[in-house]
């Protein structure tokens, strides 16, 4: 078995050997959250068994040990993202909190009535709602960067919008609903030349490939640990030092101060200014274990394998009458968003679930995108490196069976659709 054999990767993930409804689990909901390899589970377990104490404030051995592990985790994640200055990596609960931090702190400081915020048509709600809240508070307004029919960004429209000199451009690195990879380096460069500050939502990129943030050219980058094989409840915001230093804290409390009196408070420096209260210590340590795990693998081989999985799944599904993929752009992660004509997505997802196949159905927290596509939602099968060709075939077979069963039960009439 080679180093890059998916069967070997698979064995590192205990949950994947589960059965659901009496069937072996086929987990194709990786864009929602990924499964955790044993080293992550062990690291969290070990922390609570041998090192649990609060961080940054203890004068005893255990607290110092916990602090060292927690800060080492920050260093590791920073290095993984190509960041030299680990103090510019702020722990958050995930992508959502990271974007809210920027909107509440940087946004309230920099946006004024009449200023323009650009959002993407395919944005996740986490990269829409915080900006709407900011716009409502400041009088700024929002415009949308449209997509082409294949899911790629409409560059001409983007260039035209940049001529209006937006103050903030909020991009996605990869669409969670379509799987499209956007050319963020180019988009960032162009937005910066137009004088904008740029935030990139990296939640769906890092599970599939490594990035180098210093090289990317953005000002802020947000991601979630649970989508990169780490624990839930931990994620991070990276920001340029000069921006972070000039930003006010957005939450107050312990940990984020240097001195407090009833008259005034002097805040701590980076990164602690943005980390009020006890952080998710075990989460950070678990995330570092996930990064170590990924670092010990050949990520390019993983990526190439995921692309072959996507191709295989597409080839199988294309044979099915009524199968319609929703995006067709050339740069995509291993995520298949599709419709099955004549079936409501929730019914299909329910059918697949009965076969042990976990997919997501619905709007994928991208309601404005679905509205622009004229769809109530899609089915989404999202693959990770631990999925197999056999699982991709099982998906296609289960869909084919559903289509066939509809034909045999109801030869003329269409299956009545459930309305949700
Ligand atoms: N952005 C994108 C592109 C996502 O896919 C997700 C998670 N579905 C989020 C933001 C929000 O991530 P979280 O819920 O972990 O904060």
Automatic annotation (TrEMBL):
It is an enzyme of class 2 (transferase). It catalyses: (sulfur carrier)-H + L-cysteine = (sulfur carrier)-SH + L-alanine. It comes from the Bacteria. Keywords: Pyridoxal phosphate, Transferase. Its EC number is 2.8.1.7. Residues 26-395 form the Aminotransferase class V domain. Belongs to the class-V pyridoxal-phosphate-dependent aminotransferase family. Csd subfamily. Its cofactor is pyridoxal 5'-phosphate. The lineage of its organism: Bacteria, Pseudomonadati, Pseudomonadota, Gammaproteobacteria, Oceanospirillales. It comes from Marinobacterium sediminicola. This is cysteine desulfurase.
């Amino acid at each position: 078995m080679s180093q890059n054999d998916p069967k070997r990767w698979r064995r590192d993930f205990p949950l994947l050997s589960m059965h659901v409804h009496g069937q072996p689990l086929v987990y194709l909901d990786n864009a929602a959250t990924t499964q955790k390899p044993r080293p992550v589970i062990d690291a969290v377990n070990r922390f609570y068994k041998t090192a649990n104490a609060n961080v940054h404030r203890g004068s005893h051995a255990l607290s110092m040990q916990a602090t060292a592990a927690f800060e080492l985790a920050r260093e590791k994640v920073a290095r993984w993202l190509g960041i030299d200055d680990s103090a510019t990596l702020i722990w958050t609960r995930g992508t959502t909190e990271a974007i809210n931090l920027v909107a509440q702190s940087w946004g309230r400081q920099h946006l004024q009535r009449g200023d323009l915020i650009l959002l993407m048509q395919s944005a996740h709600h986490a990269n829409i709602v915080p900006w709407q809240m900011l716009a409502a508070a400041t009088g700024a307004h929002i415009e949308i960067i449209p997509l082409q029919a294949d899911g790629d960004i409409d560059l001409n429209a983007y260039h035209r919008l940049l001529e209006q000199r937006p103050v903030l451009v909020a991009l996605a690195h990869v669409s969670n609903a379509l799987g499209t990879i956007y050319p963020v380096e180019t988009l960032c460069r162009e937005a910066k030349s137009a004088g904008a500050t740029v935030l990139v939502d990296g939640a769906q990129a890092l599970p599939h490939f490594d990035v180098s943030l210093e090289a990317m050219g953005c000002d802020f980058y947000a991601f979630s640990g649970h989508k990169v094989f780490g624990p839930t409840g931990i994620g991070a915001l990276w920001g340029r030092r000069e921006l972070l230093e000039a930003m006010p804290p957005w939450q107050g409390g312990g940990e984020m101060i240097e001195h407090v009196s009833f008259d005034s408070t002097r805040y701590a420096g980076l990164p602690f200014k943005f980390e009020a209260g006890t952080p998710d210590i075990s989460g950070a340590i678990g995330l570092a274990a996930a990064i170590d795990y990924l670092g010990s693998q050949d990520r390019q081989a993983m990526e190439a394998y995921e692309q072959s999985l996507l191709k295989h799944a597409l080839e199988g599904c294309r044979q099915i009458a009524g199968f319609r993929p929703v995006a067709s752009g050339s740069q995509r992660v291993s995520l298949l968003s599709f419709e099955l004509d004549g079936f409501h997505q929730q019914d299909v997802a329910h059918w697949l679930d009965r076969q042990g196949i976990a997919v997501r159905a619905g709007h994928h927290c991208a309601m404005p995108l679905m509205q622009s596509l004229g769809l109530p939602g899609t089915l989404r099968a999202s693959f990770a490196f631990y999925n197999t060709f056999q699982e991709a075939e099982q998906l296609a077979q289960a869909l084919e069976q559903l289509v066939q069963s509809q034909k045999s039960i109801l030869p003329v009439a269409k299956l009545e659709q459930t309305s949700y």
